[in-house]
Amino acid sequence: MNVSANVIAQMRALLERRKTGYSLEAPFYLSEEIFALDMQAIFREHWIQVAVEPEIPEPGDYVTVELGSDSILIVRDDDMQVRAFHNVCRHRGARLCNEEKGSVGNIVCPYHSWTYNLSGDLMFAEHMGEQFDRCKHSLKSVHVQNLAGLIFVCLADEPPADFDLMRAAMEPYMLPHDLASCKVAAQVDIVEKGNWKLVMENNRECYHCVANHPELTISLYEYGFGYQRSPANAEGMDAFERTCVERAQQWEQLNLPSLEIEKLLDVTGFRTQRLPLDRAGESQTLDAKVACKKLLGEFRSADLGGLSFWTQPNSWHHFMSDHIVSFSVIPLSAGETLVRTRWLVHKDAREGIDYEVANLTAVWNATNNQDRTLVEYSQRGAASSAYEPGPYSPFTEGLVEKFSAWYVGRIAAALARKRSIPLRVESGV
After folding, report:
1. What CATH number has the domain spanning 48-147?
2. Is CB count within 10 Å lower at the N or C end of the chain?
3. What backbone phi and psi angles, to 5 degrees, belong to 324?
4. C-beta separation of 317 from 308 below 8 A
């Protein structure tokens, strides 16, 4: 890890005085040096969700993703396997695929036409002489995993070994929605002028939802993501809890698990839960009815609630009977973050007949723009001389604390490996 001694010393001090249950200190959100450490210790060392399988349905289809200075090429090979490579020619390092997505027969360098097959093997390199060994110049592979249609990559030499634990837990929840048999109906990229951790913290709580997300709270119960009980809301909370029990029993009969699994402090941290939806109870839309008439998988009923799936450090996803919304966060700098949202429907659904893109995307387009504003408020506030870490709500911000604790723990582990000196971190990780 190429991190200066000054940055290591600063980080050790920040980590050691981090207070459990409080937001992080300002340098975590503002410092470009700490951002560089984040990219090395978090985004190079962990499984990062970057794409969805329907983006590359046929052999030769590819997408590219930028993680810091690294460009990753994700491609479907001739055997229909998903592969990932560094998007760099083995000749003199030119970028191979310069578009965000496309389709190729072979991977051809635009500079000197070195040609690789879809398995990354160098097939053709003109004027290199008889002694040249093509086998020693294949593309450099990147670790890739396909979890029920969600594609993750890891740039580490040895990726975290616990991905299969997440797979075993999540496939029963996700596979009935058959993401692999979907298509991307819409994709929207926005750049939020805030640190990636503020983006993730904002996602991990709904304390702000009622006041800021009128479109989203049409279908989401306000009690579903943490709430402090009071005499004024006790009746509503009791009714919600009864609804959860009743619906869980119905879903279990359909082989749709719903119980919470919470592993957010694992190295490959994740959480899932299926919850009822409010109003019509079918989908996250402006009327809580399905946005797509063609249901996913083999579903025959539209009222299947919303399955949420969160991963550390950079994604969250909502699975419904009719469509899936997938969010991937890519840091750009200490103060800018790309939030990529994809809406997926059944591959046979017909735009204009089975669904309208405007209706499909309305709730989360509005919510994303509202969240962008809130994150940017937070980024500007963190730059103030008056900023100091504030307390998380024990009722509504528990998942924010778990994100912060996971982050602090993973950074501490990375620095301890570098210096071979244990770090004391109050987060308990």
Report:
1. 2.102.10.10
2. N
3. -125, 140
4. yes
